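Example for tutorial group B:
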């Protein structure tokens, strides 16, 4: 996992140099600092593999030409690992460049990973998807933050390999998670399509991919600390000018707060005592602000021509 992060850092730096939204040292330093801040989970989960697939996708999009097929294939492997990278296929496909061959490459890699599992595992393979669908509201999600703020959390329970909140309103939050996530993804997809109509340049791919993945993270009832690794090769390359520096600072703040929540103040969070819930709320609000920034800033304020 450490080697995967080092390779991702190298690819992000290469893409930064090609895209030119910010001086290459800035995205590279942001990636490195964010990964070090997330060290407690960075090398103990396999999400670094997802980070690597997203970094490959960004680099392929930046290089263009035949390298775009590598982007699609990489996202196919990332989707096999954790599904979420499939969201980044949309901005690639809307660009129209090698879209048909790219989608075939994505499907081929995904099939190479999924078909054998389906053939050999059968129902147990499908049960793995049902398992995650049945999960409750995880304690670090945006939903849990809102419930804690409203005083609706009466306790914490360990279920499905994670800590989940209990209390009044939790059932409603759990049932609303899927439709709210769908709405957030739809809003983000409309933003991506709007940009596509004005000319979808390669330099916008990290911005669109980051916005889509953030939409999923915010709406989902599960937001584990290692999910922050997914944003490292995307957010630092998303915006230019002062907005880009601001996005990098917000991402680093979110990474530092994540490590303060887990493992430093995790006992405080599970016992609903200060500063656990407050740190969680601050981290999740930063993620919301990042998503809003990615969607709302005009392209002229987020381009490489900015001073």
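The residue assignment follows.
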């Amino acid at each position: 996992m450490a080697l995967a992060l080092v390779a991702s850092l190298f690819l992000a730096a290469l893409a930064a140099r090609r895209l030119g939204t910010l001086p290459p040292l800035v995205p590279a330093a942001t990636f490195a600092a964010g990964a070090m801040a997330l060290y407690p989970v960075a090398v103990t989960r396999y999400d670094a593999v997802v980070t690597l697939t997203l970094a490959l996708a960004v680099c392929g999009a930046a290089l263009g030409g035949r390298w775009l097929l590598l982007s699609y294939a990489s996202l196919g492997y990332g989707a096999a690992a954790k599904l979420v990278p499939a969201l980044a296929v949309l901005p690639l496909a809307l660009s129209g460049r090698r879209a048909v061959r790219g989608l075939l490459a994505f499907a081929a890699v995904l099939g190479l990973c999924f078909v054998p599992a389906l053939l050999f595992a059968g129902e147990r393979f499908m049960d793995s998807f049902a398992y995650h669908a049945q999960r409750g509201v995880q304690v670090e999600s945006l939903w849990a933050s809102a419930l804690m703020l409203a005083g609706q959390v009466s306790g914490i329970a360990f279920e499905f390999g994670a800590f989940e909140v209990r209390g009044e309103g939790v059932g409603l939050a759990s049932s609303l998670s899927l439709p709210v996530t769908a709405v957030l993804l739809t809003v983000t997809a409309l933003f991506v399509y709007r940009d596509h109509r004005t000319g979808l340049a390669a330099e916008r791919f990290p911005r669109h991919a980051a916005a889509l993945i953030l939409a999923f993270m915010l709406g989902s009832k599960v937001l584990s600390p290692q999910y922050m690794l997914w944003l490292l090769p995307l957010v630092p390359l998303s915006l230019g000018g002062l907005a880009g520096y601001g996005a990098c600072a917000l991402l680093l703040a979110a990474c530092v707060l994540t490590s303060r929540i887990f493992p430093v103040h995790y006992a405080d969070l599970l016992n609903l005592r200060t500063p656990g819930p407050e740190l969680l709320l601050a981290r999740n609000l930063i993620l919301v602000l990042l998503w809003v920034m990615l969607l709302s800033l005009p392209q002229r304020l987020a381009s490489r021509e900015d001073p």
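The chain is about 70% helix and 5% strand. Compare this with the pattern of hydrophobic and polar residues in the output above.
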